[in-house]
Amino acid sequence: MSSTLERDELRPEQRTPTGHRSLSVKERNATRRQRTDQVVRSVLTFMMILAMVPLALILIQVIIRGAGVIGWEFFTQAEPPPRRAGGGYAAGFVGTGIMVAWAALMAVPVGILAAVYLVDYGRGWFAGIIRFFTDVMTGIPSVFVGLAVYALIIVGTGGSVGFGAFPGAVALSIIMLPIIVRSAEEILRTVSDELRRGAFALGARRWQTTMKVVLPAAGPGLATGAMLAVARGAGEAAPLILTAFGNVNVITDLFNVAIGAVPLQIYNGVRQPFAPGIERAWGGALSLIAVVLVLTVVARYIGARAKKVHRA
Amino acid sequence: MADPLTPGTSPPDRENTRPRTSLHSSGFKRHSDRLFTWVLLAAGTSVLLVLAAMVLRTVMDSRPVFEYQGVTDFFFGTEWHAGFSRTEFTGTYGALPFIFGTLFTSAIAVSLALPMAIAVSLYINFYAPVKLRTTLSYTVEVLAAIPSVIFGLWGMLWFIPNIVQPFSNWVNGTLGSFIPFFGGSVPSFNYFHAGVVLAIMILPIITAITREVMATTPPDEIDAAYGLGATRSEVLRKVVLPRGFSGIVGATMLGLGRALGETIAVLMLIGGSQRMDFRLFFGGDSLAAHIAATFQDASPETLVALMGIGVVLFVLTMVVNVAARLIVWRFAKVAGAGDAL
Fold first, then answer.
1. How far apart are the first and last CA of chain B?
2. Which of A256, A266, A279 is nearest to A236 (CA)?
3. How many other C-beta atoms lie within 10 A of the C-beta of residue B206?
4. Rounded CA gap, A262 and A291, in Å?
5. What is the least distance, in Å, from the CA of A285 to any CA of chain B?
6. In chain B, N or C terminus with fewer CB closer than 10 Å?
């Protein structure tokens, strides 16, 4: 390259006895490259810090503005009209609890069995297709799931099943299903093959190996997926607008009565220009974020530990 | 009775003294394995069945609106006037403003989130102290767990008025007079403001995959580049980024897919005007947001039209997601990452 030119510019003391450039001499190019490197480093550090700011801002705001609202009354009282102060999100907590519980009851067993199929039983292209569409399903817009469940269950039954907890739970379970399958699959793959072979060698049937050896060995790890799915389901608002419909009164029926949910109440509270309703929305946000974050953090912790145990 | 297993005592009757651990079995037990396999197959297939049922039903239910309006007019019509009839179509249904709003806000979100995601992944993989790596990736990825409605609430009541609005006003004031992309007034809720919050929401999704993609860069190539005298930033630019390019594209498309379908947060921040404009600070509407905003008050004919919007949204996200997954899968295969991605 430019080495011949540069050699001519060198002073005598910068040369080696053979006339080459001494290693202690910095090329002009090198200084520029080092400076670029330092600039890149500081830009990346800055963006790393910037990326962590939103989480901090959200948590700070939600805690500051929500803490004052949380109290016994907030968890036990139904919500008055947005203009009036007092009251709480009891309807939302009960509704979210019922729908998430039913959704988990539907999605967790199916999801874990599907994962067992993918890991130990499924072969060839069919398992590949299931795995692929499970991945794709995690990306389906939740509002479309709500719309489809409305079309399938509420329109599909000719109105004999109306808006309420059941269609809401079905919509949430469809959203949860791929999360559970993927996470359970990941955990089941870490169960070592020696365990399976050991069980077979003892004369166990395949189903006995699965139910009595593989699943218990994966045990706590399987809870990871269920908890992540519950965290996701508890925070969903869009599909519930189209299926549960929302309600400010406490409802415990499973069918045909519109039922409330915490995310729905937050959304409805914020839409109105009344301070008391907005204040309650911050309270709802704080309780929701607490539940979701605790579930996520605990799930990740359990998941990380479960993987470590089997790797060893 | 004598123990039939003890040597020297011959069993009087073979049938009754079969040891309990016999390998023979009868009846139900013999079929238990096959039955169990069928149950598992059913569980696995249920994923496909649910997906197929949702698609078929919504497509069937939305057909009338496509027949009434015509597919081209539904996609490219710019007028959306909901009718109020219970039995027939009376309104005008052109979904272009919503399609445009969805694409525009998602484009804003991706163009803001992608550089951030790449920077964060590079930092975590190549600059952060080893002890900090897990914590750093964790703090970014925990963002993904926060419910959409909370992003909406926070964006609407704190983030937009305190941070983004002053910035938008400033940009609009300095550039708006001569670049038509800006200009006009800056309402509190518009494409840009929805896009900024969307960017925060998809950042963890893109980061999670980009980070793992970069972690699969062969260490030999990195060491070779250092050995040739490259600085760290040169290694990143000339080895890590080209190596992971297709994986990063896949990750970006996954983020895009999420942005296209995001509902509640966008609904709270986009403005909801049912019109469209090419200006950055224009209060428009998106497909998902429009469904959620008008569903509860919709007349029967409008419900069918909303179903049509839902199908358009589904097709859009499906195409992006399938392409993204194929790219990421292919990358994982080529990079030898197995199921890591």
1. 63
2. A266
3. 29
4. 11
5. 6
6. N
E strand or H helix at B153: helix B148-154
Six-digit token string for B4:
């039939």
CA B143 to chain A, closest CA, distance in angstroms equals 6
Cβ separation of A238 and B148 shorter than 8 Å?
Answer: yes
Return d(Cα B104, Cα B194) in angstroms, integer.
10
ipTM: 0.91
What local confidence, expressed as pLDDT, does residue A305 receive? 83
Q: Which residues pair with B81 in a beta bridge?
A: B92
Q: Which of A230, B320, B193 lies closest to B312 in space, CA to CA?
A: B320
Q: Give the sign of the dihedral formed by CA A260, CA A261, CA A265, CA A267.
A: negative
Which pLDDT tens digit goes with each residue over B135-182?
Answer: 898 888 899 999 999 999 999 999 999 999 999 999 998 887 788 888
pLDDT tens track for B46-83: 999 999 999 999 999 999 999 999 999 999 999 999 88
CB atoms A48 and B123 under 8 Å:
yes
Q: Half-sphere exposure (CA, 13 Å, Cβ side) for B96?
A: 14
| Cα–Cα dist A95/A260, whole Å | 5
Residue type, B129: P
**Residue B322's closest chain A neighbor by CA?**
A136
pLDDT at B232: 93
pLDDT of residue A312: 43
* Nearest Cα to Cα of residue A244 among A174, A292, A176, A172: A172
How far apart (Å, rounded) are the C-alpha atoms in residues B239 and B225?
8
Residues A45-94 have pLDDT tens digits of 999 999 999 999 999 999 999 999 999 999 999 998 888 888 899 999 99
A263 and B314: CB-CB below 8 Å?
no
Listed by number, the residues of chain A in 218-257 with a beta carbon closer than 8 Å to a beta carbon of chain B are: 231-232, 234-238, 241-242, 245
pTM > 0.80: yes or no:
yes
Which of A 94-123 lie inside 8 A of B, CB atoms?
Answer: 109-111, 113-114, 116-118, 121-122
